[in-house]
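Practice problem: predict the structure.
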Amino acid sequence: MSRERAADMAELQATACAELGSPLYAALLRRVADDIRTGGPCAEAVAGYEEAPGPAAIALRLLGGVHGLVLTGRAPELAAHYPSAGGAFDPRRPDAAWPAFRAAVAAELPWVRDWMTRPPQTNEVGRANLLIAGLLTAVETFQLPVRLFELGASAGLNLRAEQFHYIAQDYRWGPATSPVVLDAAWRGTPPEWLTRAATRHPSITVVERRGCDLNPVDPLSADGALALRAYVWPDQTARFARLEGALGVAAEIPAEVAAMGAADFLSGVEPREGTLTVVWHSVMRQYVPKEEWALVQTQLDELAAASTPQAGFAHIAFEPGRVGEQHRFRLTVRLGESAEADLAEAAPHGLPAQGPQP
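Answer:
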């Protein structure tokens, strides 16, 4: 049953990859599922990890390990099919990469099994598109320097979000010389509330940047940067370019990410006179146990209650949620004790965004 579950999870992630624009991974994971069921090298690679938490854990860890092989030059035949390594994916031959993928798993089984111990760490830079929109809304109300705190920050790349450049029609915000460019950031015309805030606040002053993660990644280390690169899908070259730019920003702008859970981290955060305290997070809530998240929610409520015009507080979240019969990724913002506002939604990787749909 464990092997069958692993195969089912690979097929489920294959569907997700197809829907999210990675035909390479969609094709590979369908073959991975077959290989697991028949006891091939992929079955050996995931053995003992079949019950890993989260439906994507098995597939994404396996894919990340193999991508790591490609990026370090240990799988040159497979690299020919990976755009992230200078190769090419031919949609007319979606299974062309499979023989080299299977051979790489078989040849480098200890490496791949070591990667099965690592939780996926994407710290997706595209999600900054929603987070910065929420922050612009917050500074419209609290025109104060920002103290920024991120839950589930991974490598802390999005703690530098105001250093990225955002573009959508007439909307341009952030340093024009930034190595991170989030183009086509909004579908159609960006909302008026965003363009107004961007015009009134052409820059944001961030005076503190701290985050937490159970397994933080050091983006300035070779191993940490490899982990981040390996978990980006190799045929999504725009995501890969954004990550490379964000690694460059991280080398210039310091940020601290502590190895701790969200509730423990928030216990040390409180509003401070003369600043706007912002707590934000993106696509991480589902990984926090319900009991801990209930405590986090209480802490957020307490921070909101303590908010004043001179010591403001904002909670910004880009998280999945059910809207009617659909599962959507939504930007919500709470300013002080005001009610939570639903401002936008986007694809899971944050681009493009659009106004909330009925």
